[in-house]
């Protein structure tokens, strides 16, 4: 067993109306990857914000390399060798790799007025070589893939001589080859004695990359397990405190005679999409699969009027419609739940009630244009109850809720508008196993009620579990269509990699 690098004991933290953490503990060894798991809202982020100095604990102790420490702010954490790499990367896109890594610490000359660019690039090249990261220090960050930007973040953390690196959902936007590159780098860091706290909802990754797994639930410490001795079903059970059903294919089918509610014919955009044609039937969940950059989100945005269509037709219930902007789509009963719910789906600084009602506000305004609050509250309370949104009240700010509950608010917003065609773009991204199951149940219930759903997902087990039919895309084109019965991960990947010759 390696010597202990970090110990957090009896950590508690409260916010108005919410006990976020209660007597939580966590320990990390030198050269170890400790997976930190739990449902959204379990307290993982709060605990890591305390470790990185963003929040201050109400009670408890933190020991770093055997010494009791206080972490009053983020700068102090950084100086102690604690770095956190967030899911949303914190880089300046117009600066170079070297400038991003050493921002504010660049070598300068002439009364600190002139930047010593050559020395900066040499210093960066030396650091990258030490980490076996193949990057050009002079390259502009905006020209890098997400995976390479992540490498820049890691290099930046280690430029501060980080002893502890927290990685929050590091593979959420990476391809398989990029994930392998990241895992190789993590192995390199372990060999240098760096301790890594790895937050992920992808159970299969934890088996590969972690040494131990710490489980949290409802703001409390549950258990720590050795990965090699652990069944992932046990981890999931500890996370959710209840049995999660095995993933299975849809038990219902959609009749070929079912009404076609949406038909897209030869949809093309100037720079990317090419002759996209498909149908969506009433009560159907139509999955869209493909690798990153295949064009799935672009199809959704074009149908919703967020991006301009250059050619093609859209038919709703057999009638051709023109959709030039999102308002047109909503009028025709189409809703779009973006993969970036925080940026495009929610008003984070507003409460649950306002977020649920925003798309259907005209239904709650009287002839004097005053909002009927009491009528709106009834609607919001109904959706909070029916969708099982965990919130102290409908007056709670959306930003204070977990990712799974935020996603449910976005769904409630469109259900309140009574849209019949729902486009879900990565509906469970960044959501824990328990909340995923609830979202799946909700999608199935909506389909059974006659709603029609397009579901875009990068997780093949999710596509296979949920979809009645599956459209596969590659490089802006539809390369295959499969019924659920004939679909397999291998067939989907075959279609998803059929690039232009």
**Structural class computed from helices and strand pairing:** alpha/beta
What's the structural domain tally? 3
Span from first to last CA?
52 Å
Strand content: 15-25%
Number of strands: 22
Question: What's the helix count?
Answer: 17
CATH topology of the largest domain: Rossmann fold
Feature tags:
Rossmann fold, six-stranded mixed beta sheet, 501 residues, alpha/beta, 17 helices, single chain, 3 domains, 33% helix, 22 strands
Can you describe what's shown?
- It is a single chain.
- With 501 residues, this protein is of the alpha/beta class.
- It folds into three domains: 4-240, Rossmann fold (3-Layer(aba) Sandwich), CATH 3.40.50.300; 264-333 and 420-501, 3-Layer(aba) Sandwich (Rossmann fold), CATH 3.40.50.300; 348-419, no CATH class.
- It is built from 17 helices and 22 strands.
- The strands form five sheets. Strands 6-9-10-3-11-12 form a six-stranded mixed sheet, with helices on both faces.
- The radius of gyration is 24 Å and the shape is globular.
- The mean pLDDT is 87.
